[in-house]
Specification:
heterodimer, A: about 60 residues, mainly alpha, about 85% helix, about 0% strand, B: about 250 residues, about 75% helix
Chain lengths: ~60, ~250
């Protein structure tokens, strides 16, 4: 085992700021992209539903 | 046996195929990322020169690879859209650009956080770093140019020309460490270390790279499905799609 304790793991041999700064920002970016894709998808679906109901109103 | 590839060049046939593929790529990405992170933090040993700071490599190198590779794939799709005038090819190029830009940013960000403890500087204007920064601007330029033109097909063509001109930057990034005397190290990260260390380090890096690949494919497919719906709202097959649950 490389790490003696959780503190040891977080400290990363004194490089914790750099190592976790890299991984945290990456995690935030990836999560952000997934959330933005979901939001974009929801926006498209909403506008499609709107169009659908509008065209049904016009046709009846 | 003749496989008709052009069948899937139509958004109407590609859309459901992409929808079926996304969960496979997304789950592969998640599983590979867990395995890759485990290897990166619990199996790969401490580097005798850089200590624990080298663990940034497991995200930095895969992100840098992706930034260049996605650009080539994006330019390839853009070129196909330009030559064959296929809508879906250009949509694929647009779908890849944001993910490529994000990986470029991650490569630069993690590079800065690795550079500070290793070189004593967040940033230096050396050939490798500068050409990677230009890559980020190429992605942003492609996105901005595409967004600035209202007619989507004209935006596709303008973006494709920019993407193709920018391709020249990719070999410059890749070979920059050979062509110029850079502060950035060469490509042989694993070659100079003891074989056993190299094996687990290299494995961690490759698994993380695979995870990034799977993630990029899933993200691009999810985005291209949005683009298809946005652009082809008036098409009949999409109107029929609306009757089914999404």
């Amino acid at each position: 085992m490389i790490w003696k304790s959780l503190d040891d793991f977080i400290a990363m041999g004194g490089y914790g700021f750099y190592v976790w700064g890299s991984y945290l920002v990456t995690a935030v970016i990836i999560t952000g992209e997934i959330l933005m894709l979901r939001a974009r998808r929801r926006a498209v679906d909403t506008s499609r539903r709107l169009q659908q109901s509008l065209s049904e109103q016009v046709n009846t | 046996m003749k496989l008709n590839w052009f069948k899937y060049a139509a958004p109407a046939t590609f859309y459901p195929l992409a929808g079926k593929l996304i969960p496979w790529f997304a789950w592969s990405a998640a599983i590979l990322a867990v395995a890759g992170l485990y290897l990166s933090f619990f199996v790969a040993p401490t580097d005798f020169q850089q200590g624990e700071s080298y663990r940034i490599i497991f995200i930095h190198v895969p992100a840098a690879w992706m930034s260049m590779f996605i650009y080539l794939v994006m330019a390839g799709w853009a070129a196909a859209g330009l030559v064959f005038n296929t809508r879906l090819s250009s949509m694929m190029a647009s779908a890849l650009a944001p993910t490529g830009a994000l990986f470029t940013f991650i490569a630069l960000w993690t590079g800065a956080l690795w550079g500070k403890p290793t070189w004593g500087a967040w940033w230096v204007w050396d050939a490798r770093l500068t050409s990677e920064l230009i890559l980020l601007f190429l992605y942003l330029g492609f996105l901005a140019l595409h967004a600035s033109i209202d007619d989507p097909r004209r935006a596709d063509r303008a973006g494709a020309v920019l993407a193709l001109v920018g391709v020249v930057n990719v070999p410059i990034i890749y070979f920059s460490v050979k062509w110029w005397n850079t502060l950035h190290q060469g490509a042989s990260v694993s070659m100079t270390m003891a074989p056993k260390m190299a094996a687990t380090m290299l494995l961690g890096m490759l698994v993380m790279a695979l995870a990034c690949w799977m993630y990029s494919i899933a993200a691009a497919l999810a985005r291209v499905r949005c683009i298809i719906l946005e652009r082809e709202q008036q098409a009949e097959w999409i109107a029929n799609l609306a009757k089914e649950p999404t």
